[in-house]
Amino acid sequence: MDHDQKTKWECHASVELVPGADQVWPFIADFFGIHKLLPTLDICYQVEGIVGEPGCVRYCARYTGVSDNEAVKWATEKLLSIDNAQRSLSYKIIANNLGYESYMATMKVVPRGSSNKDGCTIEWSFVVEPVEGRTKEDMASHQDYILKTIAKSIEEAHQDDQ
Fold it and tell me: Which residues cross the membrane (predicted)?
């Protein structure tokens, strides 16, 4: 069955950080380094393409709790666009075992004020076809949890660099 735009779930999350957008953006822009910000991911590596260029593909997986080294959850994601000046990137999931179909996401780092010292906000939105066994609210709650985990990791790394 074809799903039109009206049947897709749209979810949005945002979180405010103390560091400025110039300090936060490099963490988000590191497309192959997402596992450094998410303790629930065990691995993330480059599958193809040029690092930081649209078209590059990453493989992310969680192996925790598996004795035979088979990924419990995994996704292969393709970077669609990246704009360092606007601090924005978009990507899509091209293969996964999570039940996600037609998943596309955008992450932005937005300055909160006129100065880089005013902190920033990370905005993350995605569109996905309804996922069997999940609700839109469940997806949005999970997205919010992941984004807060990313923000905490960035703030801790920023403090370590001080």
Answer: none
